[in-house]
Amino acid sequence: MLDEIDRALIHALQLDGRAPYSRIGEVLGVSTQTVARRFNRLRAEAGLRVIGLPDPQTAGRALWLVRLTATPHVAQDLAAALARRPDTSWIKFAAGGTEIVSIVNSTPTDGSALLLNDLPRTTGITSVSAQYLLHMYVGGPTAWRGRAKSLTAAQAAAFIATPTDRGPSKPLGDGDAKLLTALGEDGRATHADLAVRTGWSTATVARRLDELHQAGAIYFDVDVDPTALGYTTSAMLWLSVPPAHLDAVGRALAEHDELGFVAATTGRTNLVTQALCASPDALHTYLTERVGAIEHITAIETVPVLRTVKAAAPFSPSLVGLRT
Question: Where are the alpha helices (DSSP H) in the chain?
Fold first, then answer.
């Protein structure tokens, strides 16, 4: 379990992933060395990472939510193979370890074909479904409220940049690929490190990074093991809502601290969320008292999540199978 300083550090990084340790320490009332030591400990013990990612809409990418069911002996190898793909994220074992849920990043024209055509040819896969993500209420640039509620309003304001009017920015292009790859591995990489990775000068790196961030073309996300925050029980919730009420229900659910992901999708179920709770009993209470109180949800399928194989960051062999 984390203490108040740990939680405040995570909240600060969620607001500004590249905030210097010195500024974080000043706002939290601790030394720069304490912030650096806490960050390194959380990175080692709770998988804390800051990653820089392109905004899907700005980058012209389409996101698909793919569900696979497979026999137990196939599911493990299949999840590991999917995790190695650069176009996948948030790969989870669910439903007793026989279901895999993954987000697939693609161009709008190729849809989910890239993944589905490349699936291993095996009789162990018993079903496949893909749903197009139409709108994210929580997830991507919109942070999970459950890990972003430790700072006071005044403290949080110190990490929220004031937008500046600099005119239209140069859109993401092939020249940004190396920068995005480096930020996807370490969103806190120094300008000097990014200059080595991109072949640009440090001044060019700083200018382009600031330009992309100000334009909302990239965002910085925090990856941390939710069990370290006290959330030991997780489940995917697949909801059916009449289209006329879909946006209202999605917005209502986005206000729930228990939900780390809320998105409208195509398919038989048209709203999907991930719930993170302190215990099975807490999940039961959340479903019956909070979700149950929302009108116009006509059906719900609750599927427990056993383990996260891959989060938002690119694949790292050392992380596969370690998250819960």
Answer: 4-15, 21-28, 32-46, 72-83, 113-118, 153-157, 177-185, 191-198, 202-214, 243-254, 280-285
